[in-house]
């Protein structure tokens, strides 16, 4: 009985809607932002990147290395496959999005791979993409890749999210890189909260702190291992309210896909 009450409390009152340029009947918003977080420190998230398109800031992402090749991991919904890859560019090494800093590096995207089975209408399943840049970032204290988890690795109960997304439901995206420590929810409760939840490919976390609009594609770290456990995918409309989780791509389930795509990028 207590478990039933807990699940009801966690999922009751959830109001969801899609957020993006394309219309959809799926009742979720593909998000990007960190809610109720703190400002990140210099060098704290050296793998965090900002993804820009021809219209400006778009999403977050993470620098990774696969078989010696430096790539960017982000969300599929951040990439418009109809656009030439050169419509996108990436920055790293900066804490403030609207300020040009001496530590900042800029790179052009020259090729991307979006998961062929990404489906925004069914829970944003397979919401993952890889980007290749015109040249690798120079690795230093402010810019360096994040470690990927082993295949099938289960995330711990505590995670860390970061991004330049909106800081509440009415404000614009943040100029400062923000971070928050959040709780990973049990798959049983995530599955009860939303349709189309696939625990083999997704995880959910958050509540009063977490990701929201503007953080899409960004990193979710396993606090215990400091490995890249998730990619910010989507969330609920009222991101600042308690018991409203964010949803993430489970990176450990996509190691084979990442390695396969990396060979062709």
UniProtKB/TrEMBL annotation:
Entry similarity comment: Belongs to the peptidase S1 family. CLIP subfamily.
The positions making up the signal sequence are 1-20
Domain (Peptidase S1): residue spans on this chain: 34-263
The name this protein goes by in its record: Plasma kallikrein
Can you provide one Gene Ontology molecular function annotated for this UniProt record?
Answer: serine-type endopeptidase activity
**Top-level taxonomic group:** Eukaryota
The record lists the lineage as: Eukaryota, Metazoa, Ecdysozoa, Arthropoda, Hexapoda
Please provide an example of a Pfam family that matches this protein in its UniProt record.
Trypsin
Tell me which stretches of the chain form a coiled coil: none
Q: Please give a single GO biological process term from the UniProt record.
A: proteolysis
Question: Matching InterPro entries, A to Z?
Answer: Peptidase_S1_PA, Peptidase_S1_PA_chymotrypsin, Peptidase_S1A, Ser/Thr_Proteases_Immune/Dev, Trypsin_dom, TRYPSIN_HIS, TRYPSIN_SER
What keywords does the record list, in alphabetical order?
Answer: Disulfide bond, Hydrolase, Protease, Serine protease, Signal
